[in-house]
Amino acid sequence: MPVRGVFAYARQSEVEVLHVLIGKKDQESIQSHFQALTGKVRMVLFEAAMDCPYCSQTKELVTELADLSPQIDVEVYNYHTDDAAVRKYGITKIPAIVLLDGNEKDYGIRFYGIPSGYEFSTLIEDIMMISTGKTSLTEKTIETLKSLKEKVHLQVFVTPT
Amino acid sequence: MEASEFPELSERFDVYGVPKTVINDVGSMEGAIPENTFMEKILQTIN
Question: Cβ separation of B5 and A113 shorter than 8 Å?
C-alpha cells in the first residue's frame, strides 16, 4: 500500500530557519503582506527526484514561503509514487503547486514549473486571494463568470525574469 | 506554465512571446490583456 508522502510544515517559531532562496528584505516584505491573511492556505507540491531539475528548488521555495506565515502550510507528494494524490489533482507535469483553502477546496489553480521572478509575486497574490477570498475583478466580470455553463481551461505561459 | 521547463507544450501552442494565454487548447491571447477584453475572448472561444 503506497505510503502517503505528507510533509506538513508548520511555522517555526523560536527556531531560526535558514532561508536560502528568499532574502531577509523580501522575507520582511512578504511577512508584512501576510499580516492580511485571514484564512488558511495549503500549498500542495508534486515533485520527484528524477527528471525534474527544478523540483528541489521549488520545494525549498514553497517551504520558505510557508514559513513566513502560520496560515500557510505545505504538503509534498511524489509524482511517481503518490498516485492517489496525482489523480485527485489531475497532475501531469512537475513541479506542480496546487493551492487549496482552509477547507481543502481546490480552485483549479496550478503553478507548473518553478514560480520564480515575476511568478513569485503571482504566487503570493494568489495565496492572499485564497486566504482573504478577495479578488480585484470587477462586479461585471464576477457576474459573467458565475453565469458560465461550460468549463474553461486557461494556460498562461510565462518565463522567469 | 513556465514555458522553458515545458518545451513540448510551448511548441504545441506556438509560444514565442510571453505571457501567452491559451483557452481550452484552441483560443489564445498574447501580452497583458485588460479584464474586459480577457472575458470577451473567453466567451468568444467557448461559444
Answer: yes
Chain B residues with beta carbon closer than 8 angstroms to that of A154: 21-23, 42
> Is B22 an interface residue toward A (CB < 8 Å)?
yes
Domains with residue ranges and CATH for chain A = 24-147 (3.40.30.10)
Q: What is the ipTM of this complex?
A: 0.96
Q: What's the predicted TM-score (pTM) here? A: 0.89
From B43, which residue of chain A is nearest by alpha-carbon distance? A148
Task: Give the three-state DSSP class for B24.
Answer: coil
B1-47, pLDDT tens digit by residue? 999 999 999 999 999 989 999 999 999 999 999 999 999 999 999 98
**Residue A52: closest CA among chain B residues belongs to which residue?**
B5
Strand segments, DSSP code E, in chain A are 41-47, 72-78, 96-101, 106-112, 154-157
